[in-house]
Amino acid sequence: MKIIVDDGFLFGAGVFETIRVEDGRAIFCEEHLRRLQKSLDFFDISQNISKKEIQAYLAAQEEKNFALKIVVSARNILYLKRENPYLYQNKDRGVRLCFSKVLRNSSSAMVYHKTTQYYENLLEKKKAKQRQYDEVVFWNERGELAEGAVSNLFFLKGDQLYTPPVSCGLLPGIMRGKIMEYYPVEEKRILPEDLLDFDACFLTNSLMGVLWVREVEGIFYQKTKKIEKILAEQEAWK
């Protein structure tokens, strides 16, 4: 693999997608490609990735279950693979979240795209892991809930699902879109005091799918029948 030095390498002027591959098939490939192309157009990066190219790459791999990362900059298109870190995770125990002291800037275009300026997310998640948490959650500059380092958040009150609107400063994830496609979801600005009012919480991203949250830094949630239903039904969306 050869990397050409360009603004993507020097300044983080690049975008990427991470796609779950199961049995040699890229899950939600069309949705990932649409989001990737939207970001390429926004940042005026003249590159194009086709589903056919992705399928050709996957067909050449001996391994059939992994995480595929596609990184694109002005002069580079990189296909990288690694083990899906959620493949063998115990989905029954529930995940634990903590809060970051770093604020999301909802006025920045960068938070709405999956750019290669991503290390802040990884650094904050690393700090959370050192505190025995699974994921870290960001507030924005107005004190509203935004997103996790690598995930979107949903909350449940009774049968009603809630999630922060994109305008709070978050990446609209592919799995977030799937939840909103299959279930009625109210986009709601969520403040710290609101967290005590919810019955349940879960995370989404393309690699993890849906993960039940049992704790958000001292606030504990139930694994309700609604969440069990969503966990069971997600396999049918692929």
Task: Explain what the structure shows.
The protein is α+β, with helices and mostly antiparallel strands. The chain folds into 2 domains: 7-82, Aminotransferase class 4, branched-chain amino acid transferase, N-terminal domain (D-amino Acid Aminotransferase, Chain A, domain 1, 2-Layer Sandwich), CATH 3.30.470.10; 95-237, D-amino Acid Aminotransferase, Chain A, domain 2 (Alpha-Beta Barrel). Helices cover 24% and strands 30% of the residues. Helix 4 links the parallel strand 5 (95-104) and strand 6 (135-140). The two termini are 30 Å apart. Belongs to the class-IV pyridoxal-phosphate-dependent aminotransferase family. It comes from Fusobacterium necrophorum BL. This is Aminotransferase class IV.
Short description:
This protein is of the alpha+beta class and 238 residues long. 24% of the residues lie in helices and 30% in strands. The mean pLDDT is 96.
Which regions are unreliable across 5 or more consecutive residues at pLDDT < 50? none
Number of helices: 6
What is the name of the CATH architecture of the largest domain?
Alpha-Beta Barrel
CATH superfamily of the largest domain: D-amino Acid Aminotransferase, subunit A, domain 2
General shape = globular
CATH class of the largest domain: Alpha Beta
If you average the pLDDT, what whole number results? 96
Would you spell out the secondary-structure blueprint of this structure?
Layout: H1 7-11, E1 15-22, E2 25-26, H2 29-42, H3 51-59, E3 66-72, E4 77-82, E5 95-104, H4 119-130, E6 135-140, E7 145-148, E8 152-157, E9 160-163, H5 174-182, E10 185-187, E11 200-205, E12 209-216, E13 219-220, H6 225-233
Parallel strand pairs: 5-6, 5-12, 9-10
Antiparallel strand pairs: 1-2, 1-3, 3-4, 6-7, 8-9, 8-11, 11-12, 12-13
